[in-house]
């Protein structure tokens, strides 16, 4: 089965059909395949256009009917090429939107995991115990500062005389 018929007939994997739709990776792969196929078709049409133009020039004024036919074919190929350009543009836009959606989904999922982990970490923490602990730390820092101040003051050994 050709890529085109697979694309239009939905020849996807059984696993993706059972889940209710393709995964983002499967959809991206298909879009890339379609882009490649259309790019090859573009190249083919561009060579055909060049050939028809050369044929029209070759026949020139000698055989006007053949030159006209070549120009008509060239015009048809250019129309097809224009349609393919539009289709490619649409597919590229869709692929980029799908990539962004997939990225956003992954970011959201990871943020959910982080939120669950934070919830688990905070499970064993009691706000009252934390407040008491912080008060104890503050008290001990004050005591340490008082001790430090007492040690750092100059001793008054003999400096002060009592008259």
Automatic annotation (TrEMBL):
<keyword id="KW-0963">Cytoplasm</keyword>
<keyword id="KW-0967">Endosome</keyword>
<dbReference type="GO" id="GO:0032511">
    <property type="term" value="P:late endosome to vacuole transport via multivesicular body sorting pathway"/>
</dbReference>
<dbReference type="GO" id="GO:0006900">
    <property type="term" value="P:vesicle budding from membrane"/>
</dbReference>
<dbReference type="GO" id="GO:0031902">
    <property type="term" value="C:late endosome membrane"/>
</dbReference>
<feature type="compositionally biased region" description="Gly residues">
    <location>
        <begin position="9"/>
        <end position="21"/>
    </location>
</feature>
<dbReference type="GO" id="GO:0005829">
    <property type="term" value="C:cytosol"/>
</dbReference>
<keyword id="KW-0653">Protein transport</keyword>
<feature type="region of interest" description="Disordered">
    <location>
        <begin position="1"/>
        <end position="25"/>
    </location>
</feature>
<dbReference type="GO" id="GO:0005771">
    <property type="term" value="C:multivesicular body"/>
</dbReference>
<dbReference type="GO" id="GO:0000815">
    <property type="term" value="C:ESCRT III complex"/>
</dbReference>
<keyword id="KW-0813">Transport</keyword>
<dbReference type="Pfam" id="PF03357">
    <property type="entry name" value="Snf7"/>
</dbReference>
<dbReference type="InterPro" id="IPR005024">
    <property type="entry name" value="Snf7_fam"/>
</dbReference>
<dbReference type="GO" id="GO:0015031">
    <property type="term" value="P:protein transport"/>
</dbReference>
<keyword id="KW-0175">Coiled coil</keyword>
<comment type="similarity">
    <text>Belongs to the SNF7 family.</text>
</comment>
<keyword id="KW-0472">Membrane</keyword>
<dbReference type="GO" id="GO:0009898">
    <property type="term" value="C:cytoplasmic side of plasma membrane"/>
</dbReference>
<protein>
    <submittedName>
        <fullName>CHM4C protein</fullName>
    </submittedName>
</protein>
